Amino acid sequence: MSLPDKVVITCALSGSVTTRKQCPAIPYTPEEYGEEARRAWEAGAAVLHIHARTDDGMPTYSSERYGEIKKAIQARCPIILNFSTGAVGIPMEERVAHIIDHKPAIGALNMGSLTYAKYSEKRKDFVFDFVFSNPFSDIIFLMKRMNESGVKPELECFDVGHPNNAYPLLDMGVLKPPLDFSFILGVQGGIPASIKHLTYQVDQIPAGSTWKTIGISRDQWFLTAGALAMGGNVRVGLEDNFYLPSGEMAKSNGDLVGKAAAMAKDVGRSPASVDEAKKILGLA
After folding, report:
1. Residue 227, Cα to own-chain centre: how many angstroms?
2. pLDDT per residue over 227-237, tens digit each?
3. What secondary structure, in 3-state letters, does 103-114 show?
4. Number of helices and strands in the chain (H, E)
């Protein structure tokens, strides 16, 4: 990193699966996204990861809706925007239209396929279970559209082999350094959540790359601590986890970002500003 004492905190505002029945603070409307974005930014986040929703909370890939959310956020704060492209059963053109139309600084890009599931020990059954398909042909399609739009891909890695999928794309020239990786640990079907596994993922990436960790549910906080100690960046937010380390449910995304910022300061680092984050991530 060019600013080694700084940590880029990303906030994933909403996700696309959970609802207000599980956490009342999840935003649905553009105005709610805007207010949650402001809270996250004021607490120390420099980047926002966005999945759009309709007013009733359903996930949507409507380019118009992404535009409304972008406008609402930018009216309140100068935070860097990162739009999702991950989906199941959505035509590829729809998965990237909002990237082309609205050109966020960053576009999330899944780097491989996996069996994506959630298991309930109480029910002795799976809550959901599906194949999250991301073949190279789809990855290349999305990457080329991002390149044409001047959008930097965020390379999301859910399993142990996913970081290595960057190397043939570098050789082809469709992926250009410096690279930015996100390591999602703790998804059933993907790489387990542990510092040992995080270290293994980091060891696979090209020199000069930036990276962050994304911990799911209760795993978020110890992985955040590990990434901070290792010099990485971090992501928190209601997409991944509702609870503070105390077990108290967050009242906003700002609560989760605030805790991550405090943890960074405890290990001698500090949250990067938006301008600092642009330099660290190669956006400036």
Report:
1. 15
2. 999 999 999 99
3. CCCEEEEECCCE
4. 9, 12
